[in-house]
User: Fold these one by one.
Assistant:
Number 1:
Amino acid sequence: MGAGSRLPELLSPATRSPLLVRGGTLVTAERMMSADVLIAEGKIQAIGTNLLLPESCRVIDAGGLLVLPGIIDAHTHIQLDTGLYQTADNWFEGSRAAAYGGITTVVDFATQLPGQSFQQALADRLVESAPSVIDYAFHMMVTDLPPGQEDELGVLPELGIQSIKMYTTYRPNYYADDAKLLRWLEAAARYGLISLVHCENDALVTAQTESLVQSGRTGWAYHGFARPALAEKEAVARVLFLAKAVAAPVVIAHNSTGFASEHVAAAREAGQVAFSETAPQYLLLNESLYAGSEPWRYVLQPPLRSPAESAALWAAISRHQVDMLITDHCDYRKAQKLAVDNFTKTPGGLPGTETLLSLMATFGVATGRLEWTDLVRMMALNPAKIYNMWPRKGELAPGGDADLVLFDPAAEGIVAADDLHMIAGYSPYEGMPVRGKVVSSLRRGEFLVRDGVFVADEGSGRFVARACADDPRFWD
């Protein structure tokens, strides 16, 4: 498809006229249907056929394309600074890559530094994220909340923050022991917050890592041994137990084992408010890659697991036991990964926003493991509902933001870092065949990518306040 062959020339934002997306196949979490979408003033105005069009309405021919709600990646790390390592991207570069992948909203992180208020943590992150072209919300990463000060969490809804992040590992920077976890879970629940928890048993990880270091086995190939699956499984069970004790809603982050997703689902069936997420790396890659020629590509936390664990996660997905598909995106450059062949000194995390949708379309839908409706549920509707962005985000419905992806399911290609817009200079999925491609993405009715060409204005993304659905900021 040549540039401009399907899509009209853009008007300036000040003069933009209504827009009709015509002839595509709309995908919701419930069904697929042939219908048109009428967009005006950044919102979906109507869905149907033979719609009454306003004057000066522009028309997009979406024939042969799927029309998806904008993808919500609910776990990203754009322009990340851990205190030890910094990703090389910024919010313009990171959001541009996401837009090429059909992601129109992310939930990233605002980190509370020691001695810092939540207000200042958010203010600092809003300055960093201002160049974004996609919309963004934040989990508040809680690191400094001494006993007796838990009520400080009550300010978060006023700031538009509805979720916090906690860790059962990464001593001493982020680690929370059981007493701290319990205090923060209970306080978060009192203020209507949901807690996203990274679950790995720190004592097991520390002991395994120390053993490897003492025996001189610190190369990238040993990374997986340092963080065994048992560490995740134990911590997941413990966090669910603690959350149940104080009736705290939780999301168990980036499940790398079937055990994690299955136990979250069982807890929910037993009455807990509990959700799970997993990522393509745990579905498509496995620990055998650490024995290959380029183990540096796969240093991440939790690490890659056995093929049996990948199979168990796919089975959990097929039983609707996984609630969200996310990336845990970290755009470290290849040079940062290759700096030293030592897993204890290599930044952990993989680039993934731009490839999320195409990989899941290829290895989920095209293989028959998933339906398109499943992908929309896990990559748009569920994240929007769990993190209180629905009905503004996550669904193709009148009144919601006009966040859309036009996707060609017949396109074929190969994952190649040279073709991607993430700045890492490598992809963990290099060489994998993909079926399907984002043709265009729109955020609030404005093109981000048009017929494969990036056209968005830097800084046109917005912070999504998530206090509650009836808060007037929710619909700004």
Number 2:
Amino acid sequence: MEETKKSYYLVVGLGSSGLSMARFLHSIGRHVVATDIDESKPAAQRLLKDLGIRTQIGFHDQKTFDLATAIVVSPGIPLDMAYLKAAAQKGVPIMGELDIFSHYNKAPVIAITGTNGKTTTTTLIRDMLEASGLSTFMGGNIGTPLVEHLMAEQKADLIVAEISSFQLDLASNFKPEFALLLNVTEDHLDRYDGFDGYTESKWKIFKNQTSHDKAIINQAIEGFETRISRIASRIFSFSSRPESQTIQEGARICGDKIILMTQEGVHHIDTCSLTELPGIHNRENIAAAALASLLAGGNMAGILQALENFKNLPHRMAFVRKINGVDFYDDSKATNTDAVVRALESFQTPVILILGGREKGTDFSQLIPAIKQGVKQIIALGEAKDHIQKTLEKICSVVAVNSMKEAVEKACELAGKGEVVLLSPACASFDMYENYGARGDDFIALVRGLENGR
């Protein structure tokens, strides 16, 4: 029997977000069809088939798109996909997971976005609130889809959600009670119409907030003063720059000290002993997380306990081992130039920097000041290696390699005692690996397999 128009929700993309969305819509009685162009999804197909959900795997059918009640697009799906554009022209609503989640969710939401530091800050907030005696659900871009909370038997006091620009692109009605913008630097320029388009996506996290909601924003973001004048919510700013002295509500970062200022009082955090969270960028993450936690009902005892117990997340400036006086660090999560700059700022000794992977419209020239400051040698690999070599060879020695094994061996050969070998690629991993985690794991395994630097 032929489908009739407006009889089902079409979920496009069956990664973890799409799979959870299909299950959720089915659980509330919606007729669901799910599609994914990737033919290697048999497990997802079996799971959905067992629930009675029809799937189209390994192909897309324009008719299936055109006859849907609405199309729910997973975050990684390009919005310029021809099937989506054709369906939209026929009046089919195109929506994302955030609007569906927010329509059914009853718990207050703390939403964290930014180019870098989202996962660390999200995890810190979860830990701080839990240590303060509050129950949380942590999800979103960090891994667990938000709709999983809607299907859970036990509900949390607060939702702590890492939010990507891809999720915000289709967020028309999403309104978090607490919204954080950590930073905005160039990334994903292969998806957006320039940096301005990417920036607009990030600032959308505040667009539906009211005067009852709270916005926590890095004062150093370009256009801060102009942007906050358009936001209806109450602004709390933070900054590690000298102008932070002007902040009256928010957080000032002065060296290793963080000063939190809210209506409830002034609190201090000394970060000197927090070896798992090195660098200025992590002090900014701590400041933002502590502010959000205080405003959402946490307390200083819980915040300090969470910081004391925090263990650095995998592939984020993670120390691997020391060989012959050379320290090896895995920063595979650094998939854009700003993340690499922040990593380099953490070292006072010469660095052998492993760069490369799949580009995202990357401008490697943005690395030049940081490279001049402390990089002894660049080792370039992946699809971007020729671009890296062409851009940077005039300001630093660059050697191109064909594999991570070759990169690690070359780094060992070139590194001297007291120096650092840093994997901080400034690129996506998909040319050589399934994800940044697999890339980091390979680097770790290769380094651990070295004997006496060979």
Number 3:
Amino acid sequence: MFGGFGLTELLVILAIVLLIFGPKRLKNIGSDLGNAIKGFRTAVTDDEKTKTTEDPKVIDGELNEAQKTESKQDTHV
């Protein structure tokens, strides 16, 4: 099923985790994990949006080749 674990093994692991943490704390752990994943996805999506709105001519603080030649021509005028 999951990486060589069968249904019986997963149920035993779940029972042990439930005994160690308890149902209330296990709910909080799941909620915190869900919020962390949601925050990560939001950060990645926001990062992708800012990359697309940035000036495509400037890449990592450097000008591309067309802009370099334009700036050289401007200095000779």
Number 4:
Amino acid sequence: MTSIVVVRVRSGIRMSANEAFALKVLHLDVPNSCAIVDDNAEKRGMIAKVAGLLTWGPISDETLALVRKVKKDAKATHFRLNPPRKGYSHKGAKLPFAKGGALGDRGVKINDLIKRMVE
């Protein structure tokens, strides 16, 4: 089973109780936190519920090893990261990634974002 990494980009001002619960289950309590989750229908449903606050994509083994090395925890599945160097994108954190923003599915480009947040 493949794993995906989910990064919380925005805060949760005026979110519903269902959205707050989904973020709690995903261990995304604060902005710039990330969680490594299994790619299954249940997790995809939770991600879809709060997609306006998150960005995600499949994580490579190299990036996962880098995060665990820097954070000094070989078994953890959720981390607090620094804000990314040079920001999320030139159009900000309110637009989808497909339109030049920071939200939504990034595909393999999520690995570049994670590396900028770890270093």
